[in-house]
Amino acid sequence: MEKKNELVLKVRNLRLYFNTRGGPVQAVDGVDFDLRKNEATVIIGESGCGKSSLAKAILRLLPRNAGLYDGEIWLHDVNIMNMDAETYRKEIRWKRISMVPQAAMNALNPVMKIGDQVAEPAMIHMNMNKEEATKSAVRMMEHVGVPVDFLHRYSFELSGGMRQRSALAMALVTLPDVVILDEPTSALDVLTQASIMNLMKRMKTELETSFILITHDIATSSELADNVAVMYAGQVVEVSDARRFFTKPLHPYSHALMASVPRLRETIEPEFITGQPPSLLNPPTGCRFKDRCPKRFEKCDEEPPTVLVDGDRKVKCWLYA
Amino acid sequence: MTDTMTEISHTDHDNNGQALVQLKDLHVWYELKKFGFSHAGYVRAVDNVSFDLNYGEAIACVGESGCGKSSLMKTILGLNIPTKGDVIFDGASLTHTKGEDLRRYRSKIGYIQQDPFGALPPFMNVERILEEPLIINGVKDKEERRRRIEKILEEVKLTPIAEVLPKFPHMLSGGQQQRVVIARAMIMEPKLLVADEPVSMLDASVRVEVLRLLRKLQETHNLAVLYITHDLSTVRYFSEYIFVMYAGEIVEFARMDDLLDDSKHPYTHALLEASSDPNADNALVQREIPKGEPPSLVNPPTGCRFHPRCPQFMPGICDVKAPPNIEVSPKHLVACWLYDENRGHAF
After folding, report:
1. Is the bond preceding B160 in cis, omega lying within 30 degrees of 0?
2. Contacts of residue B260 in chain A, CB cutoff 8 Å?
3. Alpha-carbon distance A253 to A319, whole Å?
4. In the 3-class helix/strand/coil scheme, how is B72-127 assigned residue by residue?
5. At CA A111, angle to CA A106 and CA A113, rounded to 5?
6. pTM, entire model
7. Nearest to residue A306, comparing CAs of A31, A14, A25?
């Protein structure tokens, strides 16, 4: 086994439920995964599987109807779940863990110059004065490939790719340990998407940053992934290193997902998954994938254990128990 | 060497010997105005595009945003008026179609929007959504309307029908919404289906199901399909022909397999290079992406429009004169100077 990088983020049994009129929605239900330095963990899942809620839970950006919220999030050796809201805001959010929100290109403030927007997190979270903050904003914009004269432009004057880069610069300007990327490239063109992926591969090694990439696009996710966690109906069903995951996924759901990806360079006919994901309001007992699973057997009505396979791959399935 | 893409003639024409849709030298320019009245140039969204689409044939149009594919689509749908050139649909010229005829023209074309939720009116239930086009097109018999709605829902596999009919769009899943959109496009029994990125908003597991449904509809109804997308990985399963657009022009036109396995134009190369298959090795390499961004269509570059970004740019040739369409192999056309042996003598 090769030497592993230092552990940056360790999430254990994280739960986030939302209260609704119909009862609690179990959006994130007992999620475990690790993130190492200079690496990227990709969270793959379909819409409604709770992957965006997971990002919110890690950054503690909870909507008003959040209900149960517990578990452990270890950043290096501190459990940040034990911090009170004010300490978390001052010490963690954006300073240590930052985020590029979904459709970030449209999330920029239209009445603020790009330079000021990129500098703002540095002023607020790092207590820099305007001059220092602008300096670090310029440095970060150079890093992500935004020309410096864009400093005085507004977001509508920029192309989609440049806006996405600016949003990335905003997340990186405080030099955080972890950056959460929520579907960073889904609204972009193929070429722009590939160049943003190139950029993030470079950032991963150049800056001392680790990425959590949340996406439903399996083909693109393989561009950045060191580790993969597959989410289904609020739970992580498989955690693996990228190399073994993309050649031989373990969980039947991961299998089906991989088979559904249309290939450009091979002529395999893609397959689809019949049925729909269960409601998170009243998820079925036992394995949540059982109704769509081709390999279902009696055991599946009981809650499946998380099993270690091939040394360090984790899979939540009775087939491997 | 052929002058226009039209000259790729197909053998399997309809009985009257004509293609269903013929685009002839189509230009769609939008006028820019200064202070609201004086002329300030044109946005040349579609420039000199010609191709034929036969009965029952699927053709894919690939390009990035801003390459003119939406303008092209809107012109075929009868929503834009061509600045120059013409669209011939089923033997009739679109430029001279007006009023009542234009409405009838539009009813022969089905349109599948990209975002199903945005395309469906939130305050109408499925029955009402599917009934609307029938009412507008003068199907007066209520029984007849009901029968056609049920038939089409059966076909797009939205069953049980009685349960689906009273539902509103927000009560359906993304895949089901897209099926309603497809049903709506199909209900007038069109000859041509224009699908604008029909699966890009859907989840991976549903995407393939919808693609298969489209292919089945195409086969059973002998539909012509124009499939517009920016994602090259889905086209292989769908269409016979494909063309690539860049900055308002067609740069390459070929059979699907020819283009995917043996692309000629540097821009097509770049698009293929940028699309990935799931593979852990992807994380180890930096992909080669042409520098810069697509040009402004108000003032496109002289000569080949791709030349400022092209890795194989030949000064003195590419930036001077627009490349001709060169037939590199049968039914494979490329607009690039690289494949013209006489390029030195062209000036």
Report:
1. yes
2. 264
3. 12
4. HHHHHCCCCCCCEEEEEECCEECCCCCHHHHHHHHHCEEEECCCHHHHCCCCCCHH
5. 90
6. 0.88
7. A31
B272 lies within 8 A of chain A by CB: yes
Q: Given CB atoms, is A242 within the 8 Å cutoff of chain B?
A: yes
Strand B21-34 with B109-112, pairing = unpaired
Q: Which of B276, B281, B284, B286 is the best substitution to test chain A (most A C-beta atoms within 10 A)?
A: B276
Contacts of B325 (CB under 8 A, 6+ apart): B1, B2, B3, B4, B5, B253, B333, B334, B335
Residue B9, pLDDT > 60, answer no
pLDDT class of A274 with cuts at 50, 70, 90: confident
Token pair recorded at residue A283: 């998820």
The reply to whether residue B204 touches residue A218, judged by beta carbons under 8 angstroms, is: yes
What is the ipTM metric for this complex?
Answer: 0.86
Contact between residue A168 and residue A199 where contact means Cβ atoms under 8 Å apart? yes
- Cβ contact B280–A217 (<8 Å): no
- Give the DSSP per-residue string, B195-238: EESTTTTS-HHHHHHHHHHHHHHHHHHT-EEEEEES-GGGGGGT
Half-sphere exposure of A128 (CA within 13 A, CB side): 20
Question: Which residues of chain A are within 8 Å of residue B204 when distances are taken between CB atoms?
Answer: 46, 216-218, 257, 260-261
Q: Which residues of B touch A294 (CB under 8 A)?
A: none
Nearest CA to A253 out of A201, A204, A300 is that of A300
pLDDT score for B190: 94
Residues 6 or more apart in contact with residue A243 via CB below 8 angstroms: B280
**Spatial contact of A25 and A280, defined as CB atoms under 8 Å apart:** yes
User: Burial of B316 by CB count in 10 Å (0-12 exposed, 13-18 middle, 19+ buried)?
Assistant: exposed
Q: Do B283 and A189 make contact, defined as CB atoms within 8 angstroms? A: no
Contact B236 A256 (CB under 8 A): no
- Report the SS3 class of residue A199: helix
Q: How many CB atoms lie within 10 A of CB B163?
A: 10
State how far residue A101 is from chain B, nearest Cα, in angstroms.
18
Report how far residue B234's alpha carbon sits from residue B206's, in angstroms, rounded to the nearest whole number: 13
Phi and psi angles of residue B140, each rounded to the nearest 5 degrees, phi first:
-85, -25
- With an 8 Å Cβ cutoff, is B233 touching chain A? yes
Q: pLDDT tens for residues B289-327?
A: 888 888 888 889 999 999 999 999 999 899 998 999 999
Per the DSSP assignment, residues forming a β-bridge with A307 are A315
* Distance in angstroms (rounded) separating the CA atoms of residues B309 and B314: 12
Query: A216-258, pLDDT tens digit by residue?
Result: 889 899 999 999 999 999 999 999 999 999 999 999 999 999 9
Cβ <8 Å between A246 and B280: yes
Distance from B197 to chain A by nearest Cα, in Å? 13
A258/B236 Cβ within 8 A: no
pLDDT of the residue at A2: 57
Q: Would you say residue A126 has pLDDT above 60?
A: yes
Q: Is the pLDDT of residue A169 over 60?
A: yes
Of B205, B276, B286, which has the smallest distance from its Cβ to A260's Cβ?
A: B205
Is B205 close to A194, i.e. CB distance below 8 A? no
Q: Would an 8 Å CB–CB cutoff place B171 in contact with chain A?
A: no
Is A218 in CB contact (< 8 Å) with chain B? Answer: yes
